[in-house]
Specification:
The chain folds into 2 domains: about 15-85, no CATH class; about 90-180, Endonuclease, Chain A. Helix content is about 40%, strand content about 20%. It is built from 8 helices and 6 strands; from the N terminus they run ββαααααβββααβα. It has helices at about 30-40, 45-50, 60-65, 75-85, 90-100, 140-145, 145-155, 170-180; strands at about 20-25, 25-30, 110-115, 120-125, 130-135, 165-170. α1 runs antiparallel to α2, α3 (about 60-65) packs antiparallel against α4 (about 75-85) and α5 packs parallel to α8 (about 170-180).
Length: about 180
Amino acid sequence: MLKPQLGFSFSRRRIPEELIAVRGGLRYTTPALTAIDLATSACSDAIDIALRGRAVTLAAMYEALRMTPHRTGNLERLRLLIDSRNEPWPAAERLSHRLLRAAGITGWQTNLPVEIDSELFYLDIAFTKQKLAIEIDGRLHETDEELFESDRWRQMRSWPRGGESFVSPGRCCKTVRTCS
């Protein structure tokens, strides 16, 4: 039996075989179960990172939740998955999606793939009818140079035939929320 350790929480449970992966004799949980286990109401990063990295689909996380019923925190995990329905990649996008839904603004798509000059880009939020792209730059851009460069190119070239692009730093969303 493991002794309590500061900063750690231990639990004992049965994990369905379908949610266990094996590599080199090592057994570990699938990305879907790991992501929902690590996500909390205070920090949904695990879900966002798993979706952004395409390590798992939203459907696979719903299935992992369904296969592990009656666990403490499952209601919150379900809320986080529902909140992920527009597949935000960083937390700033998640907040932007919430604000758009709360304001009743419709007609937008997330992570819209667009090909520009033979390169594939994903627009954070796109209003295709209006040819408007909104780019949300959260804290990820402070640490990932390649992502920063890729986003700058996408923003400069997005909507090549007369469209508009609005770039929002991640903190802007918090400001908008507190001022409105």
